[in-house]
## 1
Amino acid sequence: MTQTVGKDEIEKQRSFVYKIKQLNSNYSARTGAKHLALTETYGCQQNENDTERIRGILSECGYGFTDDPYKADVIVYNTCAVRENAEQKVFGRLGILKHIKESRPNMTICLCGCMVQQEHITEKIKSKYRHVDVVFGTHALWRFPELLYQSLSGKKEVVDIEDCDGYIAEGMPVMRSSADKAWVSIMYGCNNFCSYCIVPYVRGRERSRKSENILNEIKDLAAHGVTEITLLGQNVNSYGRDLDENIDFSDLLKMVNDIDGIKRIHFVTSHPKDFGDKLIETMASCDKVCHQLHLPFQAGSDRVLADMNRRYTKAEYLDKTARLKKRIPDIALSTDVIVGFPTETNEDFKETLDVLRKVEFDNIFSFIYSRREGTPAAKLDFALSEDEIHQNFNELLEVQNEISLKKNKAYEGKTVEILVDGPSKTDKNMMSGRMENTKIVNFPGSEELTGKYIKVKITEAHTWSLNGELAHGEENV
Ligand code: SAH
Ligand code: SF4
Ligand code: F3S
């Protein structure tokens, strides 16, 4: 059963925040310096959003922030379990931290998130990574102040990986990573149990936040200057099914669309089985809902889709995307694809390529299947060798790169509006922003444009991004 964390519990956590703050201000009074915290996030936007809560707590506890592990007094790694490489990265980092901690034994190392919600991982950490001080799973996030305080007070091996359906905790502090854009979780957990996926096991059952709490959060963000929001959930299309309110995702979207100050609304992730005409109509009629949709199809073969427990067919997927494109012709589509699901043959894989060619996604996120302990697919034998899977993966990228470039080329010469993010990550001399359909545009300009909506003329298309220049006389619209 879904449990909402009571106000008294949140208050109790606030009292631990206060106690840590006392410790930190005593330290500052003594030394004139501030204790510093470092956070690092692996995984999806849900995790990014959770890290913003962790940083909110740390900030209220009186910590400053650093990116340098040699300077950090508290380190929090918020982990992901979706594929093996995400876990390997964390183990690699923990190896490095072991050396750092030898020279700085007072530092507190915390590990949280999806990866440690798995018992076999927590056991491994307890036995082989003994320099980790605090381990807490996704369901214990709101208890972080208490767990950190226990560790700071000298308790060894603080572990909280309660196995449950999950909570909803309202009213926790949050420190946003951007002043202009914000993620807003509308629901947590997943009930879909796709046969390859660990998420339902580590994130608990689907539970929706009350619309009032979501809307108040967004109104508050808008009042503080945020103009772009992304509604988050593993399957936003099932929003509201577990609530007493009579509301679905389309209804919520309309309410968010009515909030003054918000200019762009995105949402992830939609599940094809639950995506339908009502939402297409809502997307078309709500002026702030961006013309962009992330709709993972995972595989093109009906047999593989059935083995994946996805509950739609290739034809249904193609039909839904065709209807969407007809109603919203400038829609930009993205998707997730898994290559090398155990039962996938080369024939099956051709069906995946066929979906790419028919739908013409603007971009895709492609993954080689990774075996996840405890999921049904983990028991299956592989139809293809590792080499064959890698060949297919490369072919998939080639086919998609051509499509992405073609779609981007269509923007050459056009003037588009972008929200400026800041200096480009790939070219320090350029600024970078995003169109409403999330396409990245790099352009020469000053840093002062950060957070502004400006018009740029697209000069050159690349596979992953566009180049542009400020449209003459039209900046700062
Ligand atoms: N709830 C979202 C996202 C889940 S995780 C959804 O349903 O689409 C993001 C992506 O990771 C998935 O869409 C899938 O493509 C990929 N993924 C999940 N488990 C995986 C696994 N075991 N191996 C490889 N990719 C996986
Ligand atoms: Fe995983 Fe499927 Fe749930 Fe997405 S819908 S999180 S892929 S189980
Ligand atoms: Fe990873 Fe957890 Fe997200 S497993 S993808 S961080 S829900």
## 2
Amino acid sequence: MTDLTADAQALAQASAQPGRNPAAPGGARTVASAVTPAVVARLAAGITTAGDPELVHTTAPLTGERLATLPQSSPADVEVAYELARRAQKNWAALPVRRRAAVLLRFHDLLLRRQDEILDLIQAETGKARLHAFEEVLGAALAARHYGRSAQRYLRDRRRGGALPVLTHTLEARRPKGVIGQISPWNYPLELSVGDALPAFVAGNAVVNKPDTQTALTALWARELLIEAGLPADLWQIVIGDGPVIGPAVVRHADYVSFTGSTRTGREVAQQAAARLVGASLELGGKNALLVLADADLDKAAEGAVRACFSSAGQLCISIERLLVHRSVADEFLARFAARTSALRLGGGLAYGADMGSLVSERQLETVTRHVEEAVKAGARVLAGGRARPDLGPLFFEPTILDGVTPEMAVCAEETFGPVVSIYRFDTEDEAVAAANSTSYGLNSSVWTRDQRRGRAIAARLHTGTVNINEAYAAAYGSVGSPMGGMGDSGLGRRHGSEGILRFTEAQTIASQRLLPIGPSLGMDDEKFAALFTTGLRALKALGFK
Ligand code: NAD
């Protein structure tokens, strides 16, 4: 790790400015009082960079004011990061799994104890409500506990059936890939940096992580905490810079790539990884649907739909942007859903209380505004929300429900990634399933019915990596022992469960042969060998060997 202390001191001068937070109640802590220049300088020292780096500024979405000034890594710095990580990985991989797992379990406890620090940072960098920032603490803690407790089981050598029963002794072993190149987005910066890094570490790897610059402080804080929990400092390198500039360098040196972000960038990353013949897991976008069946508990469905559509202001890959309602209950459901949506409290204080926070960037606000305005111009009706709220902060947009959306409107099929949901009505189950599946994406879906069996039958017909029955997204996402990811344009590979850790390993088969070789021997001619083995194969099948 490059020693940046001196640079960091200098950066601190230029960093966070005293800020105002109009959405915070009088006297409450502000972004500027929580993320001080000293905090920024301390965290910035964890970035792998050298010499006289170019600086980049980030802005607090809640106030529009300067949040941090950070040094950027160059492609050459990325190379250095890989060298440092590669060296550290050798010793780390030599430790028993249980020692590596203990670091995750200590991290779990530290995270819960120090959660207020990271909740402040997540809110400051993303503008989301504290409750939604807490979801990240929850997700990261669940992953830390799961892989801390289960890694030995996932990674242990497994006895497999040998080529010849008794005579061939076969083991399947799991070896770490080496150094994982991890590229992560801004929307769930704790969960999507640390949540994927933890299984990589416990499997014996190092990680070179490029978080989004906007949310770099969150990733840097998580790294600091993992080091406190016992992770060797060089094992997790964090590089900061423009995606198109240093992203390809991260992929160029990686032994495996773990990417989370848009489908467009995911395709580029996949092509680069394929050209190098290294594997990649890609967690990409979605246009997720929620189905309200005629027998659903409408109060619970309306409450769940609010969470599904507006958590993190809809900037959640698994959030719902299409709501399909059975025609017989549509009016009743919509009245409840719209009332709950209109009652949501928007706010940006660094405390619990707000139901929804701000968008993260001008780019997000522009997309959300464009999708809503175009749809309304083309005839869609606004059932709730529909406008930006500059009175609360520069990037607030109301939770919005649109009815009468038609296929030519961008909001119908494109991922908005904001607090906007469109309503569609259906008459039959087949119609609902066809509508839900009428997208190239396949990330998440949600089904509301009193009949669990029927819910599971519908789930089997939905083309999405996760299906939640009577829940928005948290039931499947929080089930960290089970895989999570996308079908179709929503990605490749899975996080969580066995796939979520085994992707960071190479399978190695070790077979030892005893007594009889698998070939003609002891003077046996080829024909006799073939005849003997033909008889043997028939016998093995007849005896039920697998
Ligand atoms: P993005 O693709 O623009 O950026 C993601 C990351 O890739 C950032 O760190 C960015 O700097 C980097 N990047 C950009 N260009 C690159 C390049 N050419 N090479 C390598 N890296 C590059 O996505 P975003 O707008 O930051 O994130 C939002 C998207 O992420 C949405 O589509 C959302 O659905 C998706 N997402 C998916 C999941 C999931 O688990 N499936 C989770 C969160 C977000």
## 3
Amino acid sequence: MPDASAVIGVVGAGAMGAGIAQVAAAHGHVVVLADAQSAALARARAGHEKAMAREVEKQRLTREAADALLARITYVDGVSDDALSAFAPCAMVIEAIVERLDVKQELFRALERVLAPDAILASNTSSLSIAALAGACAHKQRVVGVHFFNPAPVMPLVEIIPAITTAPAVTDRARALADSWRKTTVLAADTPGFIVNRVARPFYGESLRLLEEGVADCATIDWALRTVGGFRMGPFELMDFIGHDVNFAVTRSVFDGMFHDPRYRPSLRQQRLLEAGWLGRKSGRGFYDYANGASAPVPTEDPVLAQQIVDRVLAMLVNEAVEAVHLGICSVDDVELAMTTGVNYPRGLLTWGDEIGSANVLARLQSLQYETGDDRYRPSVRLRRVVQAGASLRDPRRYS
Ligand code: NAI
């Protein structure tokens, strides 16, 4: 059982690092938080103070408890060897710095010079290989992926990603720590996008495809997936919210990481938005226009069209979840948990697939593959076998 006396280090005090530091401090840990930029560190400290003021105001914490939490965080300016010596007592250091392999490898090498040999080196990377991070380290067995979702204090899911080099005890310790922070943890294989960022790709990709084929416009597809699908946001409003720079980069990295498997093919339409600087809400324009006075496009509220849209996107999502289980990326239970807690899907995709009928999902994919000749619609072997066996998609047995 992990104990709250373990000192936790966090490097990178941006959106994710500041949130992760807050989570660890909230569970009683002394936390060391560093950033290469003083301004980022100052923003993180101000953010923590504001968050604590809100906790006190909402009477979720006493002022004393909030002050004690803040006092447990030490802010370290810079990442020179001297500055990093503050991490010497840490049992685990989580990096949440810029998403660049060479920069993260350099940081891990520097941390290894100051950490105890059994301290864990964890990465919050969204898209890089954990094995590639471990490859740069002297003690490769201590490197593990610990992937939080944004905002870390609010989102319950943490994906735990052991690399081929990771010692099982390190995976267990990292998971036990996140569990002790009352996170929902799932185990994911060290493959592009891990669970959530891989399985969620068709929500964007297939919706973009429907738009490109002229099946419906953005407003109609969004409306269909919200009202008939039950998703909290439609794909186009969600992409505008996330930012096309970030969303396209994730798609691109999964596509490249999968050696250009057509299932994950990015969309030219989205690339053009990015090139034009129409990044979404943050730039005032994406698929939608956020300028003051701009009128919102009106969806075509046709229930037959809506069902057609939802069926196609869902068939792709269910297939992706089934394939993730088939390839051992995650367990049946973990793919259900990951999609409902990481991206708030209204139902687990395997459960949903059973409700629609796995044979219907298979038939839809086969007809799309036949009509388009596009391999992006190829059904997972596991889907075929589960249908043949008349079993549930949630059947945990291997169908290999
Ligand atoms: P961010 O840009 O908000 O923060 C990154 C911070 O790292 C900045 O404050 C920067 O000054 C600092 N930094 C850069 N290089 C550094 C170095 N060598 N040493 C120390 N500090 C350094 O980025 P964000 O969004 O917090 O992402 C951080 C990591 O978390 C990335 O690996 C990203 O892929 C991952 N991630 C991001 C999520 C998100 O929704 N933003 C979700 C889950 C993971």
## 4
Amino acid sequence: MVYDLAKHKGQRSKLVRILIDKGIRDEKVLKAISRIPRHVFLDSSFEEFAYQDKPFPIGAGQTISQPYTVAFQTELLQLQKGEKVLEVGTGSGYQAAVLAEIGAKVYTIERQKELFDKTKVLLERLGYKINMKFGDGYQGMPSYAPYDKIIVTAGAPELPQELVKQLKVGGRMVIPLGEGSQKMKLILKNSETDIVIEDHGDFRFVPMLGNKNA
Ligand code: SAM
């Protein structure tokens, strides 16, 4: 049983209103956020702040992304029920839960063992069937490729070509690119050789860790 009170549901409705006011329109994304108990993805000391539109620390020097960022990235994916989506940077598992709640088949990779272990237990307890891998997101998960959609939730210094390779033709990838601060990029793979990159504004993410930190 998940600890989810009427007050949490009320706080989620307010959060959804804030996201609508900031321009989020995708009903599937808003519905997922209105259903998921974000407070259980945070340390209990942050519970009372869980429905503020802010990032919070989740241990191992990492953060759960701000709800607006989660909603913005997910909206850009134009995710449909039944699609196969790869997430790089599982973190708390909240973004993966949003993807699963929309009805996608979710594959997610996390580099930090401590977070991987904790989040695996939580997502299973919440009843989500998500394929989780402990490893380096730069390598993707080639055994399940190609993916309809790919979402990267850490700042990458450059576009990982291995992930582009694992994206289906016709697929979409959302990735924050840059060191320090990032530009949110939408990658449209029109064919194996025709890759269009759109810019969707400034964001700030924790950096994507390379092999050295394994
Ligand atoms: N999506 C997460 C959530 O909903 O809580 C937030 C992600 S946090 C901003 C970025 C995550 O990416 C961290 O958990 C970090 O350990 C992970 N990460 C960083 N580099 C990675 C890599 N090379 N492969 C996989 N995960 C990585």
